[in-house]
Design a protein that fits this description.
The protein has 120 residues and is mainly alpha-helical. The chain has five helices and no strands.
Length: 120
């Protein structure tokens, strides 16, 4: 039942605001549940300010993911219609396994850069 709900919510043809809002709503729910589970296991707790930052950050990330999902639908629709799609969008959102590889490399690179800046 949950899978069908998410498939219906994020399927192609739904309004962009619904995809962005849905992702911004569901991402913090999963992040907070995972954080509470980790805190229960370790015995540490989060202060209210830290929890607020986690929730706000996950809302922002969820909205970005929803926007990327909507952009992916636009790229797929334009490619199927034979319309021009800029190569960066095609590479990031319309190339299947190659897009996954690019996103993976990008995530690792950003993680390493942020870690280096944080430790400097």
């Amino acid at each position: 039942m949950k899978q069908k709900f998410f498939d219906d919510l994020f399927s192609e043809g739904k309004p962009v605001w619904l995809k962005i809002g849905g992702a911004a709503l569901f991402t913090p729910v999963f992040v907070v549940l995972a954080s509470l589970r980790a805190m229960r296991r370790s015995g540490d707790g989060l202060h209210a300010g830290e929890l607020a930052l986690v929730v706000a950050g996950s809302i922002a990330v969820g909205a970005l993911l929803g926007g990327a999902l909507a952009a992916k639908d636009v790229v797929a629709r334009r490619m199927a219609a034979g319309q021009h799609v800029p190569w960066p969008l095609k590479l990031l959102l319309g190339s299947g396994a190659l897009s996954l590889l690019v996103w993976f490399v990008l995530a690792i690179t950003v993680t390493v850069a942020v870690t280096m800046l944080a430790l400097a």
